[in-house]
Amino acid sequence: MEWALAITDRGSLDLAGSPWKNIFLQGKCSPQQVVESLFGKIRFTRLYFGQEFCDRAIPGKEDMTEAILTSLKKGMKFSLVTPYTTEKALVRLEELLAELEDIRPFSEVICNDWGVIYLIRKKFSTLVPVMGRLLNKACREPRILKHLKDIPDGEAAAYRFSSSANPYTKSLLKMLGVARVEADNLPQGMEGGLFERGVPSSLYIPYGFVSTGRICFPGSWGLRQREKFMASGSSCSRLCRRYFLEMDDLSGCVGGDAVKSVFQKGNTVFYRQSEGLLTGGLKKARTLGIDRIVYQPVPN
Amino acid sequence: MKILAPVSSAREARHLISCGAGELYCGLHPGIRPGESGKLWVNRRGPGPANISSGEEIKRLTEYAGRQGVPVYLTLNLPFYPPAQYPEIVGLAEEAASSWGIKAFIVGDPGMITALREKIPGVSIHVSSLLAVLNSASASLFRDLGGSRIIFPRYMGLEELGEIVSRVGPETEYEVFMLNDGCVFEEGYCQASHAFGGAFCHQPWQYRPIYIPGLPERQPREPFWQHLGDYRRWLWYIKNCGGMRGPGGAPLGMCGLCAIPNLQAMGVASLKIVGRESPLQKKMASVKLIKEALRIADSLSNEDTVRERIKKLRGTPGLCDSGYMCYFR
Predict the structure, then answer these.
(1) Which of A280, B30, B155, B277 has its CA at a distance of 20 to 30 angstroms from the CA of residue A122?
(2) Hey, what domains does chain A have and what are their CATH numbers?
(3) CA-to-CA distance for A240 and B149, rounded, in angstroms?
């Protein structure tokens, strides 16, 4: 099993030296304990660097260079993580990809936008596109556990698949030169198959994403009323670096053993995997053909 | 520029076309068929008013619409299908294209686009907003995969939209959201399901900001409760302004009418009305509203005057001025 450490920004690169440092959600479930109880002491041999969710936070060339240097110092391979991307941000991203191809050809690029895969295919042939988890659609619904017992078995099985688990998507990915597919650890289980057989694949821990969008609720905090909740607004105070929003559910719709909590950080809602879900996912990883675990100390 | 209206029956088609709809889209929920792998959901809505329950009814609908020169499209817009359902959906699409008179399929899954192109030669595919085409590279990919029309997601900036259209070119058709129904998140990247108690984002969540140690704490001057109040106000717009109607009887809610002059200039072909499940009256009022806005846009040359007139037509200047009701801002 390959272990990758995912870091979103230059300011957090020191985590490459202390990946298990608990800087984000405090709680009883320690991913380190779960991982080490199943795999023993592990070493992170790959650094994921960049943003999955926000194209305003695409790193600059200097940030990426710093991350590449960090990965070299730590003896880690390097993957650039990229978000879904507006036309404006695509220009910046293209420059970043050109730089990456120059200084570290044959690097992986985690793509969470079909356009970025296409761009790599057309213009950056030494870079290796990976289908990020945002493109690999699945039911990531923290409320599902309350409903699952009422759903007939045949129908419930449909929720344990992902969009890459079929031969047509596999052939499309092959045509586009996509080398790997990524996924979340699903609250309802993954028995149906997250991936088509024979495709290298990764699993993210300890957070799964539920929903994300260009309109950023926390990012609008403090703006003038008319400037709030704009998808194409230019103002961003980067409050997502300093705060997240705990989401309490008064109706009790989120529950069960798999989801520990739900929260919004920046423009994205996440669920935190419980110890049981984490253990179950990691145990099943090999049988599902997963050969890489991506650990995120901070979710975005 | 055509008005694309949602339709749930042949009877509705008659009314919508007479109001000015130039294209129609529908959904199908065929229920359970013997030998199938489970309940077959063809699109993002289950049984109920959003869907037509049989191919025969779709055929009646397309026959009527066809006589008026109005094409009908079928939504196959689940973000993904379980592997076992691919042959069933492809079979259904084959039948819909060859026997029911469906002119194009609205598809939200790249695997399904590949399957349909492989199995049904000449099939016409509209790339669903579920595929979140936010840039010209993405639009080019889906064009190359055989998409004849790109349906842009909500909340695109007009400038960016224009850039994408000019880069991808006029051989592809473009469609945008025009009336009714917003989304808090990016529809194509929302992986919650309305099936589990409604929209996840509409749940009455209580939010509490938590400081992340490491960086200096720096709260905005605005108290969080005040911002939360604005967020809930914005949600009210997203949720169709509580189902209210404007002075002229047109439904309130997300709207892109003011952008019509810009959209016309960039070559957008189709203006979409959301809401297959809506009552016929709401659908008709929506078609009439867009038709009148198009008439205003065609009759005046000054874009600012067009916008003013369209705002007047809406009849809710306060809501318009908030900006929260706009698809394009």
Answers:
(1) B155
(2) 2-208+271-295 (3.20.20)
(3) 36
Residue of B nearest to A153 (CA): B38
- CB-based contact A23 B133, cutoff 8 Å: no
Angle made by CA atoms B147, B283, A231, in degrees to the nearest 5:
55
Residue of A23, A193, A232 with shortest CB distance to B213? A23
Cα separation, A277 vs A280, in Å, equals 5
Using the Cβ of B189 and the Cβ atoms of chain A, whether some distance falls under 8 Å is answered with yes
Reference B190, options B238, B244, B132, B245; nearest CA is: B132
Nearest to A114 among B138, B156, B205 (CB): B138
CB under 8 Å to A224, separation ≥6 — which residues?
none
CATH number of the domain at B260, please: 3.20.20.70
Could you read off the pLDDT tens digit of each residue along chain A, which spans 300 residues?
A: 999 999 999 999 999 999 998 767 766 678 999 999 999 999 999 999 999 999 999 999 999 999 999 999 999 999 999 999 999 999 999 999 999 999 999 999 999 999 999 999 999 999 999 999 999 999 998 998 888 878 877 777 878 889 998 999 999 999 999 999 999 999 988 877 778 888 899 999 999 999 999 999 999 999 999 999 999 877 788 889 889 999 998 878 886 778 888 999 999 999 999 999 999 999 999 888 899 999 999 998
Alpha-carbon distance B299 to nearest alpha carbon in chain A (angstroms): 30
User: Hey, what are A231's tokens?
Assistant: 């998808």
Going by the DSSP 8-state scheme, the letter that residue B130 receives in this structure is G
Q: Using alpha carbons, select from B272, B303, B266, B258 the residue that is nearest to residue B162.
A: B266
Q: Are A166 and B78 in contact (CB under 8 A)?
A: no
Amino acid at A156: A
CB-CB neighbors (< 8 A) of B141 in chain A: 114-115, 117-118
- Decide if B47 touches A, using CB distance below 8 A: no
Residue B105, token pair as written in the block? 């399929």
> How far is it, in rounded angstroms, from Cα B150 to Cα B143?
8
**Of B86, B160, B208, which has the smallest distance from its Cβ to A168's Cβ?**
B86
User: Is residue B279 one of the residues assigned to a domain?
Assistant: yes
Q: Token pair of A63, please?
A: 């940030």
B185 touches chain A (CB under 8 A): yes
The domain of B20 spans 2-322
The residue of chain A nearest to residue B187, with distances taken between CA atoms, is A213
- Extended beta strands in chain B, E state: 2-6, 23-26, 72-76, 104-107, 125-127, 147-151, 173-179, 205-211, 270-273
Chain A CB contacts of B80 under 8 Å are 137-138, 161-163
- What's the total number of domains in chain B? 1
Going by the DSSP 8-state scheme, the letter that residue B104 receives in this structure is E
Helix (DSSP H) and strand (DSSP E) numbers for chain B: 11, 9
Interchain CB distance below 8 Å, B193 and A144: yes
Q: Is residue B327 one of the residues assigned to a domain?
A: no
* Burial class of residue A283, CB neighbours in 10 A (0-12, 13-18, 19+): exposed
CB-neighbour burial class of residue A18 (10 A; exposed 0-12, middle 13-18, buried 19+): exposed
Are the Cβ atoms of A211 and B185 closer than 8 angstroms? yes
State the pairing for strand pair A128-131/A180-184.
Answer: parallel
Confidence of residue B148 (pLDDT cuts 50, 70, 90): very high
Sign, CA dihedral B116-B122-B127-B131, equals positive
B284 located within any domain: yes
